[in-house]
Amino acid sequence: MLAARYLAGYAPELIAQAERLHLEGRLADYLARRLPEPHGVRDDAALFAYVQELKARHLRNASPLQHVGYDAKLRVLQHALGTHTRRTQVQGSRLKMRREIRVASLFKQAPAALLRMIVVHELAHLRELEHNKAFYQLCQHMEPDYAQLEFDLRLYLMHLDAQRKAEAAP
Ligand SMILES: [Zn+2]
């Protein structure tokens, strides 16, 4: 069952509903209706500006980001939908945190709401490392529709997976 893989941890009824959408070939329609807007954040420079704007609005006091970019090698599900690293670098006698946000390249083509959701997720990690209650509260604060969008992202990934499989079939 495809939905079980993408929606691990969700209620069985939701998983069954998603599987039904998939089997009936209605996933694409559902996503197009839910997430109609594309975005124009095509490269790393545009992504950097986009992230800085959201950070300035919601997390002004968090440490500056040294790198923001799309990453073609990033597997979205494995990395809990994105990645955030804090690398410690020795700089003179001080230890300095290097903070980066990498967003999987598939988000270049994704609907605008999903890009925003993943950036909010990664920004929230500047404050909270774990996916705990405080983390999700911060996500919700930056994007009130966060929980629904994370669900929609899983459906979107499931849809891409199904599409790839259909194209690979003879
Ligand atoms: Zn995370």
Automatic annotation (TrEMBL):
The organism's place on the tree of life at top rank: Bacteria
Q: Where is the YgjP-like metallopeptidase domain?
A: 92-153
The protein's matches in InterPro entries, at most eight in alphabetical order, are given as: UTP_pyrophosphatase-like, YgjP-like_metallopeptidase
Q: Which Pfam families match?
A: YgjP-like
Q: Which Gene3D superfamilies match?
A: Metalloproteases ('zincins'), catalytic domain (3.30.2010.10)
This one is known as YgjP-like metallopeptidase domain-containing protein
Protein source organism: Roseateles paludis
